[in-house]
Design brief:
The complex is a heterotrimer of chains A (124), B (332) and C (172). Chain A is mostly helical. Chain A is built from four helices and no strands. Chain A has one domain: Up-down Bundle (Methane Monooxygenase Hydroxylase, Chain G, domain 1). The relative contact order of chain A is 0.06. The longest helix of chain B is centred in the C-terminal third of the chain and has 34 residues. The longest helix of chain C is centred in the middle third of the chain and has 25 residues. Chain C starts with a helix and ends in a 10-residue tail after the last helix. In chain C, α1 packs antiparallel against α2 and α2 packs antiparallel against α3. Chain C is built from seven helices and no strands. Classes of the chains: A mainly alpha (124), B mainly alpha (332), C mainly alpha (172). Chains in contact: A-B, A-C, B-C. At the A-B interface, α1, α2, α3 and α4 of A face α1, α4, α5, α7 and α12 of B.
């Protein structure tokens, strides 16, 4: 049972070894002559303007937040999807209610225009 | 037990090779579509081109931007390669030909897929470049958004199989492929798979016209090579997943109805070749689409994911569940 | 074999937890937390709770930590001053309190069993997705429905906190 996870560990180890070998090879075989200009971030050949890590639109955070909620919904679906034929009618209906409630949440979000990135771009 | 390690070795080897082959195929097919030659000098028909590419990448200088975070910059390209290789552990290539049999392998697949976001996000952030940051940000928002319809489409396959084991999902398609029983789910899954692997029409992550190289603008040498390798590994993996979940896995169409009894060896050879053939077709589809369709705008991508695919996938799931439940009631 | 897996995983979990607290860079801290969550998932797996283990990775490592990373990365949080740079009496008291709680936990757990509990055949079944489904949709149906309302409230709440008015948010 637990030994079934050994191949997965092995694959992870293979991936890491492969990555380390390839990256070390390029470090050893490739040239390494850094200078200040070369190490600057690329900005179409100009000197970089300002810091790269600016504040960004709040919509990105909202996408991540909404994702958590609906990810949980998907997770709850799986135990039901495996057993739904053996469960009672109550369980069947309750899942439909569950999905409907969350669906209302989704409709609310969409109506609010939270995830509509086009509106924000034109307003600016 | 020994079989599983043989499968592990062969599948890892094949995955790496098919990623290299996909790079070659991409350039040849692109050339064919655009009516030019493509790489045809290195080796017969240019088949050794990927090896030349890797050699060239290794011999290039590895530049890490100053003020970037060196450590994160270095580990970021390892993550997508690792997630691609870890996915292969549960995919059945034939009857019983699977690296490891774990109970909830579909959930395992989703878990690994959800970790894939980190590679792109960290790469974009640690580079200290505006292009990279925007690319990484778009990529992570896009990947998490399309994980939801993907998960829903897979859940609708679980309804038919009644099991979270991917080998059972494969076995349940012996007569009816899921694409016939669940066509909307198949379309949603294919679209989401394109988005998850950041391929055209969802490649605005790297959109060279506006973001230079997107999240890998500041990557060079083999670190860039790792991202490149990972992209094609994910093309291969996603082709395998489309095949497994919706196109009958290792079964020929309606195989349960007409296929005669075969010996174990014959069955094994048939299974693997059918699976490889289907995977090859979907790899071709990935390339074909890339050189045919244009790129979406970011607001279109988000709109498609949240306002179209997610409600559609939820509705599709519910309808299938209700139909199956009613059918089951009538039988009893 | 299980005992070695347990030792490796718990050392990894404790190590990454310490790394998360002591690291000055916030993004590194977040990555240590991801590592910690993954090693915790491994420990759940040792206890045959496979559904819990996978949900731990999907929800915590794959969704919540992504949000954390978004916030840290894009609000440009400066490096946190190290815990040991300045000494305060409050830190010492907090440390004592922590030791007291740890002692209590060790005292209450130590009497019960060895490091790993014996796993009976019934326990092997309890952690599977099927078993969770059986219980969740019969005995715990009411809390399950409540979850839906809670999640919807979370969606609405997030939008309210963000004060999202369509068309009026300027893009940075």
């Amino acid at each position: 049972m637990l030994s079934n996870y050994i191949p997965i560990l092995l694959l992870t180890a293979i991936a890491f070894t492969l990555a380390i070998i390839l990256m070390t090879l390029s470090r050893v075989l490739g040239p390494y002559r850094p200078n200040k200009i070369k190490l600057q971030p690329y900005e179409s050949g100009m000197d970089p303007v300002g810091a790269a890590r600016e504040r960004y639109s709040i919509s990105y955070y909202l996408v991540a937040m909404e994702f958590i909620v609906f990810d949980l919904e998907v997770i709850f679906l799986y135990p039901w999807a495996v057993r739904f034929l053996d469960l009672s009618f109550t369980a069947f209906v309750s899942m439909i209610i569950f999905i409907t409630i969350l669906f209302l949440g989704l409709i609310y979000t969409l109506k609010k225009g939270t995830l509509d990135f086009s509106k924000q771009q034109t307003s600016n | 037990m020994t079989l599983s390690y043989i499968v592990l070795g062969v599948s890892t080897f094949m995955l790496l090779n098919s990623a290299a082959l996909a790079v070659y195929a991409e350039r040849r097919v692109a050339a064919f579509i655009q009516n030019r030659y493509g790489p045809n000098r290195v080796g017969p028909l240019g088949l050794l081109q990927p090896i030349a590419d890797v050699l060239k990448l290794i011999l290039k200088e590895d530049v890490t931007p100053q003020e970037g975070f060196k450590f994160i910059h270095t580990i970021a390209p390892v993550i997508p390669v690792t997630t691609a290789l870890m996915t292969v552990a549960v995919i059945p290539f034939g009857d019983g030909l699977v690296v490891t049999e774990i109970n909830a392998s579909i959930l395992y697949l989703l878990a690994i897929a959800s970790l894939g976001v980190y590679g792109v996000t960290l790469a974009g952030w640690s580079s200290n470049s505006k292009y990279s940051l925007l690319g990484g940000l778009r990529a992570s928002a896009q990947m998490i958004s399309y994980e939801l319809p993907l998960g829903m489409a897979v859940a609708s396959c679980v309804l038919f199989a009644g099991s979270l084991n991917i080998t059972d999902v494969a076995a349940s398609q012996e007569v009816w492929w899921n694409v016939i029983r669940n066509p909307i789910g198949a379309v949603i899954f294919i679209i989401a798979a394109f988005a998850e692997s950041n391929r055209t029409p969802f490649d605005l992550v790297e959109a060279e016209q506006e973001l230079v190289g997107g999240f890998h603008t500041e990557y060079s040498s083999m670190k860039f090579g790792m991202f490149f390798l990972a992209e094609y590994m994910h093309v291969v993996i996603n082709s395998m997943l489309i095949t497994t979940f919706f196109f009958g896995s290792y079964h020929l169409p309606f195989a349960g109805l007409w296929l005669p009894e075969l010996t174990t060896t014959q069955k094994m050879i048939l299974d693997v070749s059918v699976f490889v053939g289907k995977t090859g077709f979907f790899m071709f589809l990935f390339i074909w689409v890339r050189w045919t369709i244009g790129r979406f705008k970011f607001d279109q991508v988000m709109n498609l994911g949240w306002a179209k695919l997610l409600p559609l996938s939820i509705a599709n799931f519910l309808i299938i569940a209700i139909v199956l439940y009613v059918l089951n009631m009538m039988n009893v | 074999m299980e005992i070695y897996a347990f030792i490796v995983l718990s050392v990894l979990a404790i190590g990454s937890a310490l790394g998360m607290i002591l690291n000055k860079n916030t993004v590194n801290s977040a990555l240590f937390l991801v590592l910690h969550l993954i090693s915790l998932a491994g420990i759940y797996l040792l206890l045959k709770a496979q559904f819990l283990a996978i949900v731990q990775i999907i929800v915590y490592a794959g969704a919540i930590m992504v949000l954390f990373l978004f916030v840290i990365m894009l609000l440009n949080v400066a490096d946190e001053p190290s815990l040991f740079d300045r000494f305060r009496v409050g830190y010492f008291l907090a440390f004592l309190l922590g030791v007291a709680v740890l002692g209590q936990i060790v005292y209450s757990v130590a009497g019960v069993a060895g490091i790993l509990p014996q796993i009976s055949p019934e326990m092997e079944r309890i952690g599977t997705v099927e078993a969770v489904g059986d219980v969740l949709f019969t005995e715990y149906l009411m809390p399950f429905e409540m979850t839906a309302i809670l999640l919807t409230a979370a969606v609405v709440g997030a939008l309210m906190v963000a004060q999202f008015k369509s068309g009026k948010v300027s893009r940075a």
